[in-house]
Specification:
The chain contains ten helices and eight strands. It has helices spanning 18-31, 49-56, 82-87, 98-103, 108-121, 133-137, 141-152, 195-206, 226-230, 247-255, and strands at 7-11, 39-43, 61-65, 92-95, 124-129, 177-181, 214-218, 237-240. Strands 1-2-3-4-5-6-7-8 form an eight-stranded parallel beta barrel, surrounded by six helices. The protein binds 1,3-dihydroxyacetonephosphate.
């Protein structure tokens, strides 16, 4: 099996007006011309996709969306389809983020339909899973994450737009799926699981997803803790929130991939 190349991805969430977004993207595009050992992705809010895409053009940084609707088009005021993201220059889309599961009531079934939509449009789906603090305290972290994986990954034959995939009887494979383990209690809090806990849960995830699928860690990754987290053999990269909004911090995290 080829080695899994690490991915450092920035989730800008609902942050950035045009001027900030363009200057951040330009600064990162310039940095990405320097040697680096990982794949790079930024996922800005939908309003900035065109401008950020333009700023990243020709750079080593890919563009992604933060969410999509399951339908290709239609009467869904305010929503954006996977096909629209693809058309805007995206190669990836984050799906099932806890802020959408908790804040917008998204179920595993909703997330599963969105992943199928992403694949239909030829996008790589970044599936987020993770437990709450209470669930971890009750010893249920693996159980919760396993249920999210089982409920959110489509099975059966799902046509894949333009992503080159290997053959896989489940219709899901490593070319079009990335899993991000984001413990909810670690998001935006400065709290991070121990390295042993990250390794344990990534190993549990690994046993439940198609071989070769990358597993990112997300939740308060910053320039100080990135080297330790990214050195863990089970960690194939990071999904970064707050620290992705500063070019120097995001680049320091990318440089921690050695
Ligand atoms: P923070 O890095 O701000 O904790 O956010 C993590 C996250 O939610 C990325 O999707």
């Amino acid at each position: 099996m080829p080695e899994r190349k690490r991915l450092v991805a920035g989730n800008w969430k609902m942050n950035g007006l045009r001027a900030d977004g363009i200057s951040l993207a330009r600064a990162l595009a310039a940095r990405a011309a320097e040697p680096h050992a990982c794949d790079l992705l930024i996922c800005p809010p939908a309003t900035l996709l065109a401008a950020v895409g333009e700023a990243l053009a020709g750079s080593a940084i890919a563009l992604g969306g933060e969410d999509c609707h399951a339908a290709p088009s239609g009467a869904f005021t305010g929503s954006i389809s996977a096909e629209m993201l693809k058309d805007a220059g995206c190669s990836h889309v984050i799906l099932g983020h806890s802020e959408r599961r908790q804040g917008c009531g998204e179920s595993d079934a909703d997330v599963r339909a969105k992943i199928a939509a992403a694949w239909r449009a030829g996008l790589v789906a970044i599936l987020c899973v993770g437990e709450t603090g209470a669930e971890r305290a009750a010893g249920r972290a693996v159980e919760i994450v396993a249920a999210q994986l089982a409920g959110s990954i489509p099975t059966g034959s799902i046509p894949t737009g333009s992503i080159p995939t290997g053959s896989n009887a489940d219709g899901a494979d490593a070319a079009r799926l990335i899993v991000a383990y984001e413990p909810i209690w670690a998001i935006g809090t400065g709290l991070v699981p121990t390295s042993a806990d990250i390794v344990a849960i990534h190993a549990a995830i690994r046993g439940r997803i198609p071989a070769g699928t990358r597993i990112l860690y997300g939740g308060s990754v910053n320039p100080k803790n990135a080297a330790e987290i990214l050195a863990l053999a089970e960690v194939d990269g990071a999904l970064v929130g707050g620290a992705s909004l500063k070019a120097e911090d995001f680049w320091a995290i990318a440089r921690a991939c050695r």
